[in-house]
Amino acid sequence: MRSVMTRPFLKMNGAGNDFVVVNALATPFSPTVEQVRAIADRQTGEGCDQLIAIEPSNSADAFMRVWNNDGTMVETCGNALRCVGWVLMESTGKDRVVIDTAGGPTVATRAPGGQVTVDMGVPRLDWQQVPLAEEMDTRGIELQVGPIDAPLLHTPGAVSMGNPHVVFFVGETPDDGFVRGSGSLVEHHPMFPEGVNVGFVHALSPDHIRLRVWERGAGLTKACGTGACAALVASARRGVTGRHATVDVDGGRLLIDWDEASDHVFMTGPVEVERTGALNL
Question: Most buried of 1, 29, 157, 262 (most Cβ within 10 A)?
Answer without folding.
Answer: 157
